[in-house]
């Protein structure tokens, strides 16, 4: 019969996309929309990286590569892991993939058997539960709150452990909260992971985008026992403004790397050859562009935080990394706009886009139905204009 895959049909279409589509539709009509939805830096990929790719094309580096990436790039990844994260991985522990999202897909394909549970602390990046379910895993959510800086604690993790617990996903710096786990917090989490014997999938995609003095800690670097159980996942997308190039990578045990590599060899052959040359330059070349981007993001973050902190009905923590602000809008939900109660975060987002031409991300699909995410990967002028509009709505709420 012409029935379709139940698994594919169970995938939730992304709510962020519907707001982004609406914003695009309005923009095409010539309406001046401010979009706080951006999940990527607004800077061009740095010139030195683009040049490396152009050179690769001219040199004919345009054919299949090894499934898990070129040796050259894997060596660069090992060097980066050692210097930046204090992590010793050999090249046979590294798998280069077609982006961070692809790495996560590989990881869960390699470790999950049907029914295995994966702990996902909320707020979470909305793709985690879907990726876990596609690999036949069962997401187990833990709600955190503002008083704990939206960071999950070892005690909370231990409370949801069962004999089906296979892994925990940790994301630091975090999308959407911008929070970074401290060494002490990670040590406590690592202790539970080792004692209860599950994997930690450490998504460190935003590791370069940090604004304080504290360098984020990679949980795998804490001790040998947690190193064995961790799959460290990162990529060039966010740090080097290379979202379209599609290169991610992992460091793990040899056994897991081998499984991921063989799965990948059948599914996508290899990551794009030209993008691998570009990623090599990103990791090994000058890091000046990263510093320049961070400086700009930092200014925007300060400005946005100042404004939001002074707005009625809203509150937020100052992000420590990434380029998102996670804003608590719970106080708006029982207020009325034009005689109708706001009620849900999607209604708030709908009013903002339709009546004020501001696109924000309602965070129900990030596990928080009373928060929105504002990205500061847009110019400070746009941020100012957008925040003025949000403030105007807030002043109209009764
Ligand atoms: N992990 C997190 C937390 C993200 O926010 C993203 C992208 O939005 C990714 C991973 C995936 O990045 P990539 O573009 O390399 O697939």
UniProtKB/TrEMBL annotation:
Its cofactor is pyridoxal 5'-phosphate. Its EC number is 2.6.1.-. GO terms for biological process: amino acid metabolic process. GO terms for molecular function: pyridoxal phosphate binding; transaminase activity. Residues 32-390 form the Aminotransferase class I/classII large domain. It is an enzyme of class 2 (transferase). It holds the Pfam family Aminotran_1_2. The keyword Transferase applies. Keywords: Aminotransferase, Pyridoxal phosphate, Transferase. Belongs to the class-I pyridoxal-phosphate-dependent aminotransferase family. This is Aminotransferase. The lineage of its organism: Bacteria, Bacillati, Bacillota, Clostridia, Lachnospirales.
């Amino acid at each position: 019969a012409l029935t379709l895959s139940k698994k594919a049909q169970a995938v939730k279409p992304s709510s962020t996309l519907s707001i982004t589509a609406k914003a695009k539709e309005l923009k095409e009509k010539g309406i001046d929309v401010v979009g706080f939805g951006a999940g990527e830096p607004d800077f061009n990929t740095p010139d030195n990286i683009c040049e490396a790719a152009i050179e690769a094309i001219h040199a004919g580096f345009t054919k299949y590569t090894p499934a898990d990436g070129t040796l050259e790039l894997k060596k660069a990844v090992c060097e980066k892991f050692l210097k930046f994260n204090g992590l010793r991985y050999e090249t046979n522990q590294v798998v280069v993939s077609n982006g961070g999202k692809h790495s996560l897909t590989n990881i869960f394909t390699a470790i999950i058997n049907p029914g295995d549970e994966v702990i996902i602390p909320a707020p979470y990046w909305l793709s985690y539960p879907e990726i876990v379910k596609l690999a036949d895993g069962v997401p187990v959510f833990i709600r955190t709150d503002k008083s704990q800086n939206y960071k999950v604690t070892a005690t909370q993790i231990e409370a949801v452990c069962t004999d089906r617990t296979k892994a925990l996903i940790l994301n630091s710096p975090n999308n959407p909260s911008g929070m970074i786990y401290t060494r002490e917090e990670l040590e406590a989490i690592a202790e539970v992971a080792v004692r209860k014997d599950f994997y930690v999938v450490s998504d460190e995609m935003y590791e370069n985008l940090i604004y304080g003095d504290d360098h984020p800690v990679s949980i795998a670097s804490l001790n040998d026992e947690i190193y064995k159980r961790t799959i460290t996942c990162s990529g060039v997308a966010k740090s080097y403004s290379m979202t379209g190039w599609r290169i991610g990578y992992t460091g793990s045990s040899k056994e897991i790397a081998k499984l991921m590599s063989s799965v990948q060899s059948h599914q996508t052959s290899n990551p794009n050859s030209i993008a691998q040359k570009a990623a090599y330059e990103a990791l090994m070349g000058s890091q000046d562009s990263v510093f320049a981007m961070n400086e700009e993001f930092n200014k925007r973050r300060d400005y946005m935080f100042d404004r939001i902190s002074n707005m009625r009905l809203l509150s937020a923590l100052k992000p420590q990394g990434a380029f998102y602000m996670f804003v608590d809008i719970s106080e708006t939900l029982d207020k009325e706009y034009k005689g109708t109660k706001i009620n849900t975060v999607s209604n708030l987002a709908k009013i903002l886009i339709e009546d004020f031409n501001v696109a924000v991300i309602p965070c129900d699909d990030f596990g928080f139905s009373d928060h929105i995410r504002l990205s500061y990967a847009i110019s400070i002028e746009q941020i100012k204009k957008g925040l003025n509009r949000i403030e105007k709505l807030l002043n109209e709420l009764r």
